[in-house]
Write a structure and sequence with these properties.
The protein is an alpha/beta fold. The protein has four helices and seven strands, in the order βαβαββαβββα. The chain has helices at 12-23, 42-52, 90-94, 145-155, and strands at residues 4-9, 31-35, 67-72, 75-81, 104-109, 123-129, 136-142. Helix 1 (12-23) crosses helix 2 and helix 1 crosses helix 4.
Length: 163
């Protein structure tokens, strides 16, 4: 089970809509990775997810804090950003493995920086600039039944296919 879908996201609002769609499919134990260059929309997608779950506070990239925690009554949600990791061994010293549990959802930016330590992703998303003046391309790969549920929710948005 490795379904891959490609979409065109003309605006930041569309990126947030994808995040909101993902919120409908979240369940404990889900690992979702977000890859892409700086400014590709990773945190924008997470913001859409959190807003759809009812979070009204600020949503910022955890570049300096490494992780932001968002408690919801039905799950624990962790937003990681490993951009600053110079050595994957930092994973062990930071004690972050304990966040990846059956009752948590983990959204991981810059997963390639800790790839050897991360649990397998249920859904891997790549965001890319296509042109500086227009939107983004989103490629989503599901590797589990949970990831497939996420893809179904994104497909319901009827976004245009990526060029």
């Amino acid at each position: 089970m490795h379904t891959t879908n490609r979409y065109w996201l003309p605006s930041a609002g569309d990126t947030e809509r994808v995040g909101a769609a993902l919120a409908r499919a979240l369940s404990g134990g889900l690992v979702l990775t977000l890859a892409g260059d700086l400014g590709a929309g990773k945190t924008t997608l997470v913001r859409g997810t959190l807003r759809a779950l009812g979070w009204t506070g600020p949503v910022k990239s955890p570049t300096y804090s490494l992780v932001e925690y968002y408690p919801f009554s039905s799950l624990y949600l962790y937003h990681f950003d490993f951009y600053r990791f110079a050595d994957p061994i930092e994973w062990e010293t930071a004690g972050l493995a304990e966040c990846f549990r059956d009752d948590s959802v983990c959204l991981v930016e810059w997963p390639e920086r800790v790839a050897a330590w991360l649990p397998p992703a249920d859904l891997a998303i790549e965001l890319a600039h296509v042109d500086a003046d227009v939107g983004r391309r989103l490629v989503a790969r599901a590797a589990s039944a949970e990831g497939e549920r996420c893809l179904v929710e994104i497909a319901r948005l009827n976004l245009p296919a990526a060029p």
